[in-house]
Amino acid sequence: MIYRKQVIFAVVMLLLLSAVSVDVMAQEGETVVRTGLRPDAPPYGIRGSHPVGARDLVIDGETPLDITVWYPALNDDNLEEAIIYPYTLKMDTPPGTNATIAGHAIGEAPYDLSESPYPLVILSSGFAMGRTVYAWLAEHLASHGFVVIAPEHHERYEPSMTTLWRADITRPQEVLTVLAYVDEQVGAGGTLEGLVDPELVAVVGHSSGGYTALAAAGAQLNMDAMEVRCDNARDVADPNVWLCDLLLPYVADMAELAGLDSIPEGLWPAWADPRIDAIVPMADEAYKFDQESLAQITVPVMAMGATLDTGSPYMWGTPLTYEHVSSTTKAMVAFENAEHMIFSSACEALPLYAEIGFYQLCSDHIWDMDRAHDLINHFTTAFLLAELYQDADAAAALAPGVVNFPGVTYEAQGF
Question: Coil, strand, or helix at residue 23?
């Protein structure tokens, strides 16, 4: 039985690989071979057929919001897809310290509107992480026919973490700001004219960005329930109880920042948009919600997590999301023995972190980052193709009987 399952898995993967990784003919007959970060990348971890463009924009307002847009681009001159992104360091560093991230896109390339409008993916970073730290994922999605917009969330890292609570209020609002901007700019004469379909939307996020994705899909804060969770955690000496002290002392401040007259009893207001069709929370912060709150989510969900995560502890996040959302289509991907930053850029792309002693922010103690990113690309791309493009082959690649990667635990319903 085990042998038969392995054979079936191999055949399905071979068929998917042949469908996804067909060579693309460049101008003058040159063959361009598309690959993943490693030669053993799974089918949807292989870069897509679209050249990728990237450009920075600013959403004007009382508090301007910087964004980066990745998109399917024209490359009539066969330019190399190579770019150096500036990276915003949101922590105290020596004067003159500047960081960059190496990527694979063409800056300011013209839009390819031949297959537009494309589905929109809003990419929400981890707390105090710059938006370009996930360029590897954004570029990959754009190569498969998505427009990805990543906002530069307004926050800064401090060792005391006493401002972390602000992000729980401001981040969902910034997602809504991005959506309003897209609505304004997709029409005639707009910056995104003809490029984006604002009715096909997914939110992908890591850590605090995972919280943001959950909130954008309808989950509502419940500080009463979190206080009960924290009391229970203290009773059993749960090592993750430190998370409670980052939030519970500031509940009144959160309510004030949200514009509420008083602290809500039970569920807080929803900061969601009904056009959001799917979410991919990675190493999320589901502990800020309770079962009733997570049950408000009905759209397809792919929850990813790292089982040895000490930043967003696994058992306080990913399994809670998967278990309690009401979605009939959902999946859970667990990277065994991985840490929190498996979802971040590798040190090769962001060398400054290693140079200033923050190697742990761009590496994993067990996993090869390229292998992890190939798998994250595979799962995320297949999921979004299945849900936003109704791609049957992509959905088939997520069937529980097909997914079989060493070091990955997988559960799914609806595939």
Answer: coil
Half-sphere exposure of 187 (CA within 13 A, CB side): 4
> Residue for token digits 């969770």?
229
Contact 407, 335 (CB under 8 A): yes
Cβ-contact 177, 185 below 8 angstroms: no
Q: Which two tokens stand for residue 75?
A: 């490359």
Q: Kindly indicate the confidence band of residue 358, based on its pLDDT and cuts at 50, 70 and 90.
A: confident
CB 61 within 8 A of CB 177: yes
What are the two backbone dihedrals, phi and then psi, of residue 414, each rounded to the nearest 5 degrees? 90, 0
Q: What is the pLDDT of residue 157?
A: 81
Whole-number Cα distances in Å, 144 to 15, 118, 120, 147, 359: 18, 10, 12, 9, 31
CA distances from 336 to 54, 241, 400, 404 (A): 33, 22, 17, 13
Ranges assigned E (strand) in 152-232: 196-206
Sequence-distant (≥ 6) Cβ neighbours of residue 415 within 8 angstroms:
329, 331, 386, 395, 396, 398, 399, 400
Residue 365 token pair: 């103690």
Q: What is the DSSP string of 242-277?
A: GGGGGTGGGHHHHHHHTT-SSPPSSSPPP---TTEE
d(CA 203, CA 371): 23
Q: What is the pLDDT of residue 223?
A: 95
Residue 402 CB coordination number (10 Å): 17
Question: Which pTM was predicted?
Answer: 0.91
Domains of the chain: 48-413 (3.40.50.1820)
